[in-house]
Amino acid sequence: MIKKLASVISLFLFTTNFSGANTSLSGYIEGRYFILINRYNHLYQSLWSRAVVDIEAKANQNAKLFIRIRGEESSGFLNEISLIESSKKGVSFDRFYFDLNRKNLRLRMGKQVLSWSFGYIFRPMDIFMPVSVYEPTFDFSGINSIKLSASTGRFSQLDAVMVPEREYENSKFALKFITNIAGADLLFNYSHYNVGDFLGFAFKRDIGIGLWIESIYFIDSNINRYSRKLNTLVGFDYTFPFGNGLYFVTEYNHDQTGFEVDNYDFSAAMIEERKFLGKNYLFSMFNYPFDSKFSVSMFYVSNLDDKSLILSPSLSYNPGVNVTINFGAYFNFSKDGTEFAPNILSKSYRGAHYLYLFIKTYF
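Now predict its structure.
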């Protein structure tokens, strides 16, 4: 894997330097060690390693090429189950796109990350990027797409995205207009994907606390569970003036398109590209920095209908520049057959707890 990664980087740097492009390189190397503890008190372990290299080449102010190369290796139980995309192996292009700018227009084409929601973990408008209940801010791979952005004013922008598929009707389309009025961010959206078409509206503003509301309404769908239904998110965050500042964020999601508790269909959920199965969810997180080196955080996410729950405390340590060390756990308090302990998972892993140690260095 290392030889392949080095070969790709060397070839690209040679090409860009030869062509005279302004090139920069950055990235990180990360190791994650897991211990799984199942309900029978059996222990399993796994190691997941990842190297990420970002290469940016600017031909001029109006043209840019960006490549993210990711190499991964895993061992142990992560070769049998996927935990936050951790079962991937080998070297891949995580992102690969070019930007062309012309006055108020920007065209981005290639494998890119699409940000299409105000939500932290619940993202009703986002039909593009996945979500992990174990790590809401996980750095996922991009999606092959075409995005056109047009600045329509000092505080407003219009974005159009297409994710092409072999069959035109199976492609994804989305149109988003975002603006700011009286200090409030407003987002208007239309999206089409294999489930149907929906309209969306989102509001975000700081009113002493940060507040965001996001809702979509399916105007057309060939699935009865979606037709004329809403999916709504309400969230807020606040930093309490306690010590060095206690940050707190919470989100509630009510999704009328979700499955009933006694009728979960995992196969249908995969076809529909659902991020969550049910109808009602709650997420909360706090983070407190003791000083410049140590901080503690904890979050939980719960399906309020089937009572499944994941709780994750962690301790972060920054021993020096460009290095972070995290120690924590994922505690799964879920009964068999619930969303976070599905019966489709082996009993050895169903409802298991995880201890972890992450070490990450940047360059």
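The CA atoms of residues 70 and 345 lie 28 Å apart.
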